[in-house]
Structure formats: structure tokens, C-alpha cells
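Notes to self after the Tuesday call (sharing in case useful).
The group wants a holo model before anyone commits to mutagenesis around the pocket. I volunteered. Ligand is 4'-deoxy-4'-aminopyridoxal-5'-phosphate. Logging inputs and output together so the record is complete.
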Amino acid sequence: MTILDKFKALQGAYDAVQSAGRDPFSVCFDEVLSPSEAVLKGRRVILLGTNNYLGLTFDSGCIDKAVEALVQAGTGTTGSRIANGTYGDHAELERRLAAFYGVRSAMVFSTGYQANLGILSSVAGRGDHILIDADSHASIYDGCRLGNAEVIRFRHNNPDDLARRLSRLKGQPGNRLIVVEGIYSMLGDTAPLKEIAAVKREWNAHLLVDEAHSLGVLGGNGRGLAEQAGVEADVDFTVGTFSKSLGAVGGFCVSNLPDFDVLRIACRPYMFTASLPPSVIASVTQALTRVQEDPGLRTRLSLNAQRFYRGLEAEGFVLGPQVSPIVSIRMPSTEVALAFWNALLEAGIYLNLALPPATPDDVPLLRSSVSAAHSGAQIDTAIATIAAIGRDLGVVTEPPSRRTETAKRQAGLPEGLRQPAHGHRHDRAPVAERTL
Ligand code: PMP
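Result:
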């Protein structure tokens, strides 16, 4: 018996995943060429699973600012924010974030994960209740575990269930903190924020919105779902990350609460870790400027998201409930998801494989994230490749319009050259023609 024996079942599941082809959890790019293309084992692939929503990782302005800061201020701060790790540029980025959101204060963390860990574990204390959406990101769950508040899960995107659970707390002392996400990372659906804000007001709770996937994506100014829904005044804490639309790494929380800055000496994941390197702070500050000055980035992203979502929908795939830059295809089983993911990689498309228990309702997903940097041709290639493999594996049948064309084409061929309509090509056993 060793201390790692508890992971035997997990190791077994991982071995099964690896035996199906490439290891989806240790993909290593030879070279990343641009926000939308990389080289993997000598082959060019379209990047379709990167969260690089605005394509800013290669923005020349962001790179210039990062290089300048690197040369001027060195490679790292080697200290936490409360020791030697706060430079003028860290403070300036916090001022910029607070001004962007029109609130009093901002705190920059070393990752978005740590922002959730820090804020949730410190603002809600013993005797308080945190009410989290059941589909919350791991960082939200972990932030709850790090603190001393009672945690209550409510049904995903269900304000009535939230209200019911709050009503059961009536008469109990302590504060209530509701936690939701702007765009949910697995299926790309948005929170019903207007209704959630109404519940918040009715029950005199606080509200935290994690805009990790919606900053730079939603809202007239790119501030996220709360801006789009017109409920920013109801949000007490906005959490976000620099690792998606802003193309770098890091996280933040902004708030209009007058005493928010006390968290700088109370929030352990802020206090006891090294601060972000100056180069990262510089590129993020420039990326924020791009978000503010170039609304065309959001328009391009939105058009690409529409094109990809509608294209896959027309091919018969079962997707998340709404158009969003996160487009996930529901898979009938883990085995099919693995075969699909491997076949896509062979065909030059990289996207994310998301497996239970990390997915809503334990449904395996092929998760893509669209970028403003994708060309129309890349999106169309991805749709055509996914559709061909989907038909091959029996995940979808041919759409009715194309079925007629194929039938006509096949009718003109000699019998031996005709192909079955779908799902029976090659020597792979057809998977039940089932979509979830
Ligand atoms: N919140 C949500 C909703 C996320 O999806 C993520 C990252 N996937 C994070 C927080 C953490 O962000 P970071 O990568 O900056 O740690």
C-alpha cells in the first residue's frame, strides 16, 4: 500500500484514454505559429481550443510593450504583492481595470484561479453562505473549500432554485454571496443575469460574477455579461482572467465596495504568492487598451462564432444551447469522443476533449473556442472536417439537402464504388446513430 494507491482508478481511466490514440492531456506543440495555427508532431493544425478569443497573443503592440518591460524591469518581481512585488505598472493596471469597470477598486492576482480562490475564501467567512451555480468552474469550488462559509449549490442557470434555497436560509445570521459565471466554460451558455440580480436584490445578498470567458467578448464595451444584461450596478465583485481574451496570464477582481482594499492584507492567495512579471503586466495593459479601442475585434469574434455554431448545427450536431465563442459538441460516449478527437487531430484540427466528471450532466464534449483571429476559410475547413468525421463515426447523419446530392452522385457510380451513406466507411464499427 503506497500513498498514491488512491489514484489507481484515475490512472486506469487515464491509461484507457491514452490507449485510444494520442494523449489529449499532454499535447505538446512543436511551434505555435499564430493565434490560429500551430505545428504538432511536424503537422500544421488549426487551433480551435485555445480561449484566445480576440487573438491577442501575437498582437504586435502587446508584444512590443512586453519586450520593453522585460528589458527595463527584468524577468520577474521575485516577490509577492505585499512585499517587493508591486511596481508602478501593477498599480497602474489596477487603476485601469477599476476605471474600465467604473468602480472604486481592483486587485490583480497571479492567475484567475487564484482570484477566485482568494476572493471566495476571504469575503465569505464563518457563518456566511455562498450559493454557487452547480456548473461552476473548479476555481470557484476550490475557493469555497478554502474558506469557512457554508456552501450551497443551486441548479445550473435556475434563478427559481436559487431563490428557493435563499428562502430556506431566512432568519439565519450571516451574509449571502451568490456566485455565477458570465459565459460557462463547458457549453458556452450565459447566466440569466437579470433574473439572478433580481433574486439578489430580493434576498439582500451579494453577487459575484466570474467574467473569465465574457470579458472582451460581451457587452457594448467588452466588460462582459453584466454590461450586456444592464445589471452592473448589482454586481459586488467581478472576477476575470488575463489568460483568455487578454492573451496572457493573471487574474483580477474589481469591486465598488468601499472597504474592498482591506483584502490586500486578508486574502492569502494574493498575499502569499509572487506577483506577475512586468512583461505580463505590460502586455495585459496594452491588451485592455485594444479591447477599449477596437470594438471590431468583438464584432469579428461574434461573426466567427455565428459561422461556426450555425455551420455545425446545420450538419446535425447537438451543441450547447446558444451561439457563443465556446462551441461544444455533445458526444454519445467517451469512446466516440476519444476516437473523434484523435481523428480530428490527424486531420489537422486541434480542439479540447472534455470528459466527465468535468462536464455538465457527465456528457463527453468536443469543446472548441472560436477566435476573432480565425479566417472564414479556417472556420469552414473546421466545419467540413468535423462533419466528415462525425458522419464517419455515426455521430451525425448527412443533412437532408446533402443526402439527395450524394444519392444522385452515387447512383451514377458502378455498384462496387458506391459508399454507404454514413457511418460505415473504413473498417471502424459504426457507432449507434445517436446524438444526445
Ligand atoms: N474562471 C473560469 C470560469 C474559468 O474558465 C477559468 C479558466 N478556465 C478560470 C476562472 C481560471 O482562469 P486562469 O486560467 O486565469 O487561472
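Two things stood out.
The chain is about 40% helix and 15% strand.
The domain at 60-293 is CATH 3.40.640.10 (Aspartate Aminotransferase; domain 2).
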